[in-house]
Every structure is written in C-alpha cells, then in structure tokens.
Write a sequence for this structure.
C-alpha cells in the first residue's frame, strides 16, 4: 500500500509541477510579448513609422 501511494504521489506531483511550469511559461511569454509590442507602439507614436527609410533603401 505504501509503495502504491508513493507512486501515485510522484505521478500527481510531476503532473502538477509540469502544469505549473506551463502556466509560468505562458505568463512569461505574454508579459514579454506585450512589453515588446507596447514599446514598439510608443516608439511609433514618438518617432513615427520608418516607411520612408525602407523606400529610400530600395
């Protein structure tokens, strides 16, 4: 009985830990994507788009 409950505990602990890591990774990815997007929007508001630079290079 003790071995069975220990195996069950290890399995559930592993599953819970992997779920936690997945949630943590998703939150981290969301925060960094949002930060990157908001900084690009702020720069566009401040300096405008760089479409003119792209056309001059072509």
């Amino acid at each position: 009985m003790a071995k069975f409950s220990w195996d069950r505990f290890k399995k559930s602990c592993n599953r819970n830990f992997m779920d936690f890591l997945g949630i943590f990774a998703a939150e981290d990815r969301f925060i960094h994507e949002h930060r990157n997007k908001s900084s690009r929007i702020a720069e566009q508001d401040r300096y405008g788009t760089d479409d003119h630079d792209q056309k001059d290079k072509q």
Summary: The chain is about 90% helix and 0% strand.
